[in-house]
Write a structure and sequence with these properties.
heterodimer, A: mainly beta, 4-stranded antiparallel sheet, B: alpha+beta, Rieske Iron-sulfur Protein, Rieske_2Fe-2S_sf (chain A), iron (chain A)
Chain lengths: ~110, ~425
């Protein structure tokens, strides 16, 4: 069952920096890669720190605490100490609004 | 209690020049048991020197990323099982020196210092530090770690690790020989005897003794005391005429050694042998209600009742009847040590054999029937010698037969130890 939540307009999200939003009480980090938007649960799976405070590099988000990396598209860990995938959320643009489906959180394939 | 004796001038009474009056190790100046100066020199020349310190049984950390906190000398280290084998690193953050790993054992893919969250791989390599790239504050970017900072240069200090048949050793020194050469040809067959097939970890006991670590080394090289100090032995007449003995030093330096006791083959001993012979004390009225604890299920080619084998400086391998132990000896300053008895069995133990091993754990450890007096005796020496550092012990038992290796009424092994110690320490 989908559960779309409005988190802003497309111009709120830039390629340079992730943006922290809340959707139905869940912290979500939203990323832009070119024309596409991606949403990850905004908490590193290694230590408890928001990924949205990290740095974007080559399609990955670098955790500000230990420089571990996650693939922004899939949530897969790309560099130690991160070893557990971070949750991804479906994200879409509908009627000029950006929406995140928190109920539709996907486990990494 | 081992009080610290201090003179008016503030110097410790035992802090005097160390002088061994005999090169044969028969007279040991008591200063070596209480001097901080001697202790510090040992940390450098022995534990940081070309010696392998026993740190763990491999079966204590059976799975990938398992770890154990322990010590090499008094330096805290962590031993981990990695994808490639084993690693050992000094448990001290490369940032500000805090202990990184605060647990005795566990499983962790990485280790984080609580102070500033510096994070290390289980190999000891630095993986990340908080705010390395600085921190965003609105539109401003606050500066982070120095640009020149290279994580590869800030890993934990690594030790060399060697595994020999399930025993793990670590050393700080590049000059330490290969582990097989270090153990040497006199010791190897006896290490092999107890570690000839896969072992399993059964648990440990821990105890502290308010005495110097070398007093325990003397103790495990001293078969002379066994029938005299340990009342359980004499009460139940466990050591008897007709037993054959070995007391063999390591030929290279004398720091390792071996003691064995073997009963005559006619007496292939089980609990029933004790019962049949109506084992009883010399004082009437004492007998074991259940002599099963002194039984022995034969499991080696030579059915020794005892094998006591100190491997300098942190290990004593032990087989007493069917109880198998790797004792770890850890110095804690000049007048304290910790002693950990790591009990093990074999993977293919029968239930009966395993049960007997566990039962016979009662023989050793802090409250062991035949070992509880040992650390009491070493404390008596510590207390008796604290003041007179320039006075010496006298060890003359077997002195006139230095090459005799078939006696257990001898102090040969202790003398060889002290001769080796003098060379190692430059005394």
């Amino acid at each position: 069952m989908s559960n779309w939540h409005d988190v802003g307009v497309p111009t709120d999200f830039s390629e340079d920096e992730p943006r922290a939003v809340m959707a139905a009480g869940e912290p979500v980090a939203v990323f832009r890669l070119g024309d596409e938007l991606f949403a990850l649960h905004d908490l590193c799976t290694h230590e408890r720190v928001p990924l949205s405070e990290g740095f974007i590099e080559d399609g990955c988000i670098e955790c500000p605490l230990h420089q571990g990396l996650f693939d922004i598209r899939t949530g897969a860990p790309r560099k130690a100490p991160c070893t557990v995938p971070v949750r991804t959320y479906p994200i879409r643009i509908a009627d000029g609004r950006v929406e995140v489906d928190v109920a539709g959180a996907e486990a990494l394939a | 209690m081992a009080e610290t004796l201090t003179t008016d001038s503030g110097t410790h009474a035992a802090d005097r020049d160390v002088f061994f009056p005999q090169p044969d190790g028969s007279r040991v100046p008591y200063a070596v048991f209480s001097s901080q100066e001697v202790y510090d020199r040992e940390q450098e020349r022995i534990y940081r020197g070309p010696h392998w310190s026993f740190v763990a049984l491999a079966c204590e950390i059976p799975n990938l990323n398992d770890f154990k906190s322990t010590f090499v000398g008094d330096t805290p280290v962590v031993v981990t099982r990695t994808a490639d084998g084993f690693a050992c690193w000094v448990n001290r953050c490369a940032h500000r020196g805090a202990i990184v790993c605060r647990e005795k054992h566990g499983n962790a893919a990485s280790h984080t210092c609580v102070y500033h969250q510096w994070n290390y791989s289980c190999e000891g390599d630095l993986q990340g530090v908080p705010f390395r790239r600085g921190q965003k504050q609105g539109d401003i970017m606050l500066v982070g770690m120095a640009k020149a900072f290279d994580p590869a240069q800030h890993g934990l200090r690594k030790l060399r690790v060697a595994e020999y048949k399930g025993l793990l050793f670590a050393t700080f020194s590049d000059d330490t020989p290969d582990i097989e050469d270090y153990l040497g040809p006199q010791m190897l067959p006896w290490v092999d005897r107890l570690f000839h097939k896969p072992i399993v970890y059964l648990g440990c006991t821990r105890q502290y003794s308010k005495s110097n670590w070398k007093l325990y080394f003397e103790n495990v090289k001293d078969p002379y005391h066994a029938s005299l100090l340990h009342l359980f032995h004499t009460t139940f007449n466990i050591f008897r005429v007709g037993m054959s003995a070995r007391s063999i030093p390591d030929a290279t330096h004398g720091l390792h050694s071996l003691i064995t006791v073997t009963k005559p083959s006619v007496e292939t001993n089980t609990a029933s042998a004790y019962t049949d012979q109506k084992i009883r004390s010399m004082q009437d009225g004492f007998a074991l209600e259940d002599p099963y604890v002194l039984g022995q299920i034969p499991e080696y080619e030579e059915n020794c009742t005892n094998q006591i084998q100190p491997i300098f400086p942190q290990l004593v391998i032990q087989q007493i009847h069917n109880t198998l132990v790797a004792r770890q000896l850890l110095p804690k300053g000049p007048s304290n040590f910790e002693l950990v008895f790591h009990f093990f069995g074999y993977e293919d133990d029968t239930p009966e054999l395993r049960e007997l091993r566990l039962l016979q754990a009662n023989l050793v450890g802090p409250a062991g029937y035949i070992s509880m007096e040992d650390t009491e005796a070493t404390e008596l020496v510590q207390r008796g010698t604290a003041r007179d550092g320039d006075k010496t012990s006298f060890m003359g038992m077997g002195l006139d037969a230095p090459d005799q290796t078939n006696s257990n009424i001898t102090e040969n092994l202790i003398r060889r130890f002290w001769a080796g110690y003098q060379r190692t320490m430059g005394y």
